[in-house]
Amino acid sequence: MRRFSHTFEVAAPIEKVWLFYTDISHLGMITPPEMKLRIVKCTTDRQIAEGTEVWLEGNLVMKSRWHSRITYLKPYVYIDEMLEGRFRVWKHTHTFEPRDTGTKVIDTIDFELPYGLLGKVLEAYVEKQLAKIFAQRKESTIRVLK
Length: 146
Description:
With 146 residues, the chain is an alpha+beta fold. Helices cover 29% and strands 45% of the residues.
């Protein structure tokens, strides 16, 4: 199992950042265009809640479809976990902390690939791709919320 973590600050109050990130449409605004992310189905129209399920399609390292569920949601933390997809384990914890100058956004992803030893080797590649994706998400979040 590997852990990827990405942290940044945005100059917006925590309530605004929380409302943005818990609105399912935020995915289209912060996901890099080359991922071609598409929400296939979601059990909510806008604001996610604990138990919300989402089916997505896009280029997550390679073209794939996945099904996730919000397994925990309390202000200002929520967790989405992949139920079906290319990863054996995908647990993404979104944490938001108030700061004097805005909000600290912390993404922590615990992941594991299938494929045995080959999967272990590929996890370093996946981590590099996640770093690129989350750098773009940071830029997009800051741009959208200013």
